[in-house]
Structure of Broad specificity amino-acid racemase:
Amino acid sequence: MSHARMLLVLVAPLFLLNCRAHPGTSVPRAHVSNAWVEINTKAFEHNLRTVKARLSDKTQLCAVMKADAYGHGIDLLIPSIVSLSVPCVAIASNEDAQRVRDGGFGGRLVRIRTATPQEVEDALPYALEELVGNLAHAKHISDIGQRHARTIPIHLDLNARGVGRNGLELSTARGKSDALELLKLPHLQLTGIMTQLPVEDREDVLRGLALFKEEAAWIIEQGHLDRGKLLLHCANSFATLDVPESHLDMVRPGGAIYGETMDAHPEFKQVMEVKTRVASVNAYPAGSTIGYDRTATLQRDSLLANIPMGYADGYRRDFSNQGHVLIRGRRHPVVGRISMNTFMVDVTEAPDVQPGDEVVLFGHQGVNAITQAELQQGAGTLIDELRMGWGRANPRVAKSE
């Protein structure tokens, strides 16, 4: 047998092994990089149903899918939105709007941040309902509608509870005057009145709700509007789940539908898991220093697993010498600094760990889990920021188990 033929015989089985699909998915390993993000579409659908079960027939669900569905991937989740007949999706960017429409969603599409005039104009093909929080911005949108002979639906955002970001301040004489002038602008159709809640506290939400309802009622009365044709909405995930009085005509849960509220509401399921595989296992003697800056010194002879993921892949340097991963169902501590594309974990207590073993950085393996609470504490940030980083940096794989 020739050398080339022998090499082919040896390599081919390895290639075929790597082309097998990941368990529970249809994506071949050959198409997946060093790490991947699993998106559980069944868990997402469960969370949507769980939210819908809390709503009365008079309250619509508007699923917030901004930032590419909080990093989960609109393209993977919009089929669930369509199949469950969710009537409304909220987004922030035109890119997200395009993904939603390309996914076959034909329902209400609401932007929940102020858009630049150019964004508004570019978004006309997507039939967005735009957020408006001041008179000048409303005039820009009105001008765009005039140029294109279009009536653009808008949601008037009120600064009722002091987020101080998008909303019109109605407590001042100028705010009231601007609100009434805004209602007279041509090529705009007031579709909703909204506010945004800054604090996850029931009493704070109730105070904000009372003020919002008072301000919305003033606008409806002074503007001679038909209340039956308007959507009043303010409830985020916290308010949707813990302050049912805030449901009004529509709720806008974001984190809850991705499982972010699992700690307070265990009926929700985590949609994202982050995984990689052991690259190698190395033995080092006691006294060895590990990683850049020698921040870790081994106190015993140790086995360290090389994990082919780093801060370039969204696994932040904050986890240096304090994070944990799961391998073969057991927790293993991070040793040393997180590098750009790799880090080490101590597997001395599990000498059976082998290259190719699955590594869970966020999610479950066996009876153990790396939870969002520990990741948030370790990184000093929100789980949303971590998930968006993982979703941008790594391929996303849909699973339905």
